[in-house]
Amino acid sequence: MHEWLRTATEIHVPAVKTLIYTRKIGRVLHKNEDEDAKYRSLQRDPELLAFHSRASTGVGLPKEQVDKAEATLLHLFDEAEGELSQHEWLVGDQFSLADISWVPLHFTLSGVDFPFDRYPHVSAWAEAIRERRSFQEGVLRWCAKF
User: Fold this and answer.
1) CA-CA distances (angstroms) from residue 51 to 11, 12, 32, 41, 121?
2) Distance of alpha carbon 15 from alpha carbon 111, whole angstroms
3) Domains of the chain as residue ranges with CATH
4) For every one of its 146 residues, what pLDDT tens digit does the chain have, with 9 covering 90 and above?
């Protein structure tokens, strides 16, 4: 479980955020100088500052960075598919923090056409979580579709 949690955190900016900005948000998010200055004065995370300085220019992220992000995610969802072909949840037969940490990645990546059709067990897992009352109230009620 700890490995799934650690990985979800580590790949958020370099992989998940990269695809989301490339395929959806970056097209509409271009800050003017005042907005950029305000963001820079408020943001304390150097990784996010560096990412947003590249992602919100209107030019887009380098193709190599996007390709690496997609390869990372494909590899990790290959691993998830393997685990979920043997168990109901990511770390066995009990719902855990691993599932809670990965389902938002699935939810947002679905909104940018990540190829989940190649992962039938991941798709069934995500649907099972989607049916949970906590997910419906905590996510779908707030944001039905990303």
Assistant:
1) 13, 11, 16, 15, 32
2) 15
3) 2-140 (1.20.1050.10)
4) 999 999 999 998 889 988 988 888 766 666 677 877 887 788 888 888 777 777 766 667 889 989 999 999 999 999 999 999 999 999 999 999 999 999 999 999 999 999 999 999 999 999 999 999 998 888 888 877 77
